[in-house]
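Appendix B. Raw example, untouched.
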Amino acid sequence: MTDNLVTARVRHTFERRMRAMEFNMSRSHTRGFTLIELVVVITILGILAAFAVPRFITLDSSARTATINGLAGSVRSAAALARGMSMASGNTVSVLMEGATVTLVNNYPDASATGISTAINSSGANDFTVALTTGVTTWTKVGAPTPASCTVTYQVATSAVVAGATVITPPVTTPLTAGC
């Protein structure tokens, strides 16, 4: 019986040590990543980056183009709204739009600081630079790769007398997106 007790104790001690070794082995095995796992992950990330970066660059250019086209639409709408307000009120010199006075030429906003720039009521002072010249307002997109060809140009309405009648040519709004 003593032999069985000794044998049981030895077996119990042996099993306990084996479990401890298995636990230590499994713990040491899960401490980190193997070199091959790291290389595979880095390779996959490199491949994904190679495809993703050009798409984000394209999105940046597309966003600038959409901004220019959006501003051109806003300028056209503001000019049409100012003309409608001028026709409805009978005032051909200025109209009140959202609490601001917009100066007119030929029933359309002029190209001054109180003309089309006031009519569009733009809050994008950091998005565009505005250049005012006689009869022309030009907005240039800030941050464009080629700013001179990422613009919106507004040319005022003109009038001419044809066969004794005054003919008004509406303003021309031109978006240029080649350099966006």
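End of appendix B.
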